[in-house]
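Let us work through a complete example step by step.
Step 1: write down the sequence.
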Amino acid sequence: MKRIILLVSISLLLIACLTSSPNLVDEVASESSESDESTTVVEISETSEATNTSEPTYTPEPTATKKPTSTPKPTSTPKPTATKNPYLYSSGTFLVNSEIEPGIYQGEAGDDIWGSCYWERLSNLSGDFDSIIANENSVGNFYVEIKDTDFAFTVKCAVTHIDGIPEPEEFLTKLDTGMYIVGRDIQPGLYKGQAGEDLMDSCYWERLRGVSGEFREILANDNATGQYYIQVAPTDFALSVRCPVEFQSQ
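Step 2: predict the structure and record it as C-alpha cells.
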C-alpha cells in the first residue's frame, strides 16, 4: 500500500514540474524530434551506402588467340623420268637384229690405249677366237658398222646409232685422235701432221672404205714420223688418225 502511494506521489510531482515549466516540455519534445531525425538520417545513410555498395563486376580473361593453322607444304612434283634414247646402247653384248639393229654406231673413248673402248663383232657366242669377225681398241671419236649377217655385238662403252646423232653444221679442220667420216665430219683434201722422229713416237693413220673394222677395208695406212701429209680422196669413206692433223687444202 505504501509502495502504490509512493508511485502516485512521484507521478503527481512530475506532472507538476512539467506544468510549471512549459519550456522543459518543449526541450524534451525537441530532443525527441532531433533524436528521431538523427536516427532517420542514419538510417537513410545506411540505406544509401547499402544501395551504392555493389560487388565488383567480373572481367573475363581474354581467350587465347588460336594459332593459325600451318599451311601444308606443297607436294613435290615428281621429276619426269628420262625417256630412253632408242639409239643409245650401253656397255654389253647384244644380239643383232633382235636386241640391236645393224648399222653404223658412233662412240667416244680416250686418247690412248688406256682410255680406249674395246668392241667386237661376233659370228656366235661360243667365246672361241674364230667367232670374232672384227675387233678394235678404238680411241677418240670412232665409228663401227654392225652388219645384218653378224650374230652379236660386244662393246665396252656406250655407242649411239648414227641416225640418232645430228650431223655437224660444218666440216672440221683440226682433227684430234679419232675416226672421221668423209663428207659428214670432214671434207676431202690434204691434211698435215707432225709426229716424233722414230717409230715409238710415230703417228698411225689409215684411209678407209668402210668402218666395219675388217682388214680389207683399209685403203692405205702408215706409221708416219716427223712432218707428214695425208691425201684424203672424195671416194674415201673415213679417215682414222692416232694423233692430231690439220686440213690444208682440197
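Step 3: interpret the result. The longest helix spans residues 22-52.
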